[in-house]
Amino acid sequence: NRERAAGLVMLWVIGMVVVRLARGVVLLDRPITDDEHSVRFGAQVLLTGQCMAPSPGPTEIFPQLFLFTRGGRVASFDFLGPQLVWVAEFGGHLNGLLIAALGALPLPALAYAVGRRRTAAWGLAAALLFVASPTGALFSITSHANTFSRGLIALSAALAVWAAGSPSLARWAAAGLSLGAAGLCRPAEVFLLSAPLAVMAVVRAARGSRDDRTALAGLLLGVLPWFALFALHNRCVTGHALLHARFAPSELVHNWNHPPTTRLQNFGGNFAYNVLLLGVWFLGPLGLPLVALGAGRDKVLAGVAAGVALGLALAILHPDPGIHLLGPIHYADSTV
User: Fold this and answer.
1) What is the largest CA-CA distance in the chain?
2) What pTM did the predictor assign?
3) Which residues, 6 or more positions from 113, have their beta carbon under 8 angstroms from its beta carbon?
4) Model confidence over 157-181: pLDDT tens digits?
5) Angle formed by the axes of helices 34-46 and 80-92, nearest 10°
6) Phi/psi at 70 (5° precision)
7) What is the pLDDT of residue 332?
8) I need a surface site. Which of 45, 66, 165, 193 has the fewest CB within 10 A?
């Protein structure tokens, strides 16, 4: 066990070093998209002890893309999770180390989770498959919310496997904390990805043993504080606890919205398109058949596969397919 733990730590450290160097050399430690700039700005506002800052004017010359304006004040319209990562980065003068740690986190987390459920060799294979995936590897060097949520989802899986091996309220609460933190980065995607497994946990708690009820209680204990923080931040920014800035009416109307589309157009131009790109960017032409084959191995994997399908189905509700510079960006969570 000590040798395996040392191996996992070494895998994480090597991944962090590679991610940190690649981020500095390839991206020059800079954001590459508008939403990354928005997140950094939101973190700088939060570090002042406020959730919004006075809106500079005139608005015609101040970039407002991916920002939210209300009552003459402005905030990032991105979710709170990535903003908190940058709060830690700026406040702790971490020089990109936290971003690198989250970017490399899927390596030891996947190796541990798969290794405990199968064998150590399969765990190492899972980590290597993640590295071999262009989406898995390239996304790790960015500061996108997807990068952070993806790492935390992988950590949640590892902690859940750890808790299942020796059930306790504290272990399951740790898994819930990680999952809740992932949800604070990407609420809809993480909710849909985990929904089938959550339903399974509720059913098992209702029908099963004390350990099953402990698992559900621990998960809720870990998730609920993040939901409370999410609601408090929404209340501060939009005035409504359950209305996030992304979906609230801003005083400044952006001109970047996509034209109206039908569900059928979204199915072809967004859903089917992204499924194809996941297959190409993840494991190539054989990737999707292998995923379909593995989904039927047991109930847990079937639940994971159902969650991935639900997350992909979200594409039918909106027309934005993503920019795909690093793969299917909206579905990067699915790669873990």
Assistant:
1) 62
2) 0.92
3) 123, 126, 154, 157, 158, 160, 161
4) 999 999 998 889 999 999 999 999 9
5) 60
6) -150, 130
7) 80
8) 165
Alpha-carbon distance of 330 to 324, in angstroms, equals: 9
User: Among all chains, which residue has been given the structure tokens 């510079």?
Assistant: 325
Q: Locate 310 and state its tokens.
A: 């639900």
| pLDDT reading at 93 higher than 80 | yes
Identity of the residue numbered 270: N
Question: What does each C-alpha distance from 52 to 201, 228, 231, 251 come to in angstroms?
Answer: 38, 19, 15, 14
Q: At what angle do helices 97-104 and 145-165 cross, to 10 degrees?
A: 60
Tokens of 29: 């430690």
Q: Which residue has the tokens 């949520």?
A: 149
Distances (CA, A) of 79 to 101, 112, 181, 280: 20, 29, 11, 29
Contact 131, 331 (CB under 8 A): no
Reference 226, options 124, 81, 95; nearest CA is 81
For 52, 61, 62, 234, 267, the CA distances from 56, given in Å and listed in that order, are: 12, 9, 7, 22, 40
Q: Is 257 exposed, middle or buried (0-12, 13-18, 19+ CB in 10 A)?
A: exposed
Q: What is the pLDDT of residue 272?
A: 84
